Amino acid sequence: MSAGHSHSELGPARVEEVSDGVFAYIQPDGSWWINNMGFLTGKHHTVAIDASSTVARTQAFQQAIGKKTSIPVTTLVNTHHHGDHTNGNFLFEGATIVAHEDARRLIVEDGEEGIKRLQTAGIFVNPDGGPDWGDIKPAPPFLTFTDGVDVHVDDLRCEVRHPGTPAHTTNDSVIWLPERKVLFAGDLLFNGGTPFLLMGSVAGAIEAVESLRQYDAEVVVPGHGDVCTMAIVDDVLEYLAFVLDLAARGHAEGIAPLDLARQTDLGKFAELSDSERIVGNLHRAYAELGGANRGAPIDALAAIGDMVTYNGGKPLTCLA
Ligand SMILES: [Zn+2]
What we know:
By secondary structure, the chain is an alpha/beta fold. It has a single domain, classed as Metallo-beta-lactamase, Chain A (4-Layer Sandwich), CATH 3.60.15. The protein is built from eight helices and 14 strands. A seven-stranded mixed sheet has the order 1-2-3-4-5-6-8. Strands 9-10-11-12-13 form a five-stranded mixed sheet, with helices on one face. The protein has a two-stranded parallel sheet with strand order 7-14. Strand 11 and strand 12 (182-190) form a beta hairpin. Helix 4 packs antiparallel against helix 5 (231-253). The protein is globular, with a radius of gyration of 19 Å.
C-alpha cells in the first residue's frame, strides 16, 4: 500500500452539460491514462468523443450516456490514437469510428500485441494494484480524414479538425461547435497536467495550440483536467516555450535530456501532475533540434525509461 494519492481519493467522473445536449465527461484527476470524454445528443444521433483507457472506465462512460439519452452512440470520434482515448473503442459496437488517418495507422500497427506489451512492461503501475485494463481489443477508426470532417448531430455542426502539424501526436484533432462556442481540444490542452509531446512535436505543439485562438471558444474541454476557458492556451504555451528554451540550451551544451531535466528547477510547472514528462518532452525537442521531422518516430521506450529514472526508478503512477 502506498502512502499518499490513492485511487479511492480520485472521486467519481462528472457529467457536465456545457451546452444544450453537449456533455463533457470529466475523470479526476486527469493524470496518466485518466482522460476526458464527451458526448452530444440529438433526436436521431448520439456522438461520443473518445473512449477511455480501461474497459471499466469506458463502460461507466457508456452508462452515463445512457442516463441522458436512449439513442445509442452512432458515431465515435477519437481525438488521437493514444490508448487512454481509444482502448475502449471496441465497446461501441455498431458505431462508426472517426479519426485522422494516422490514428488508424498507428492503432493498426500497434495491434493487440502492442497493447499487451505496454500493459505488461511495468512502466505504469497503480500503487493500489493494477491498473485493471480489462480485455481490450483494438478497434481502429475506420472512417478517416487528413484535414478534417464535419459531423452533424441533427442540425448541430461539429467540426473535427486536424491542426495541420504533429503536436501532442501526429494525428490530433479538435472538435469545434461554432454555434455553441464549445471546443473539445483533446490532448492539445492539459488542464493541471504536464503537456506531453514525446510522440508529436514541441515546435508543432506551439503552432497548433496557438492556432486554437482562431476558435472564439467560451468553453474548453481539455483532454485531461477540468473544463476551462481559452485562458488555458496561455498556460500551455508558457510550458511549451519553457521546454523549447531549455532544450535549446541543453542541446547546445551537449547535456543529455535526463541530466538536463535533473538539474532543472521546474518552478511553477512542478505543480502540474506527471511532471516527469519533462524528460520525454526534452527527448522530442532534442530530436527536432538534431534535424528530425516533426512527429518522426524516436526511441520512445528509451525516453520513457529515462522518465522512470527521473521518477527515482519507480514506475509511473497510473491510477486508471
Ligand atoms: Zn494523449
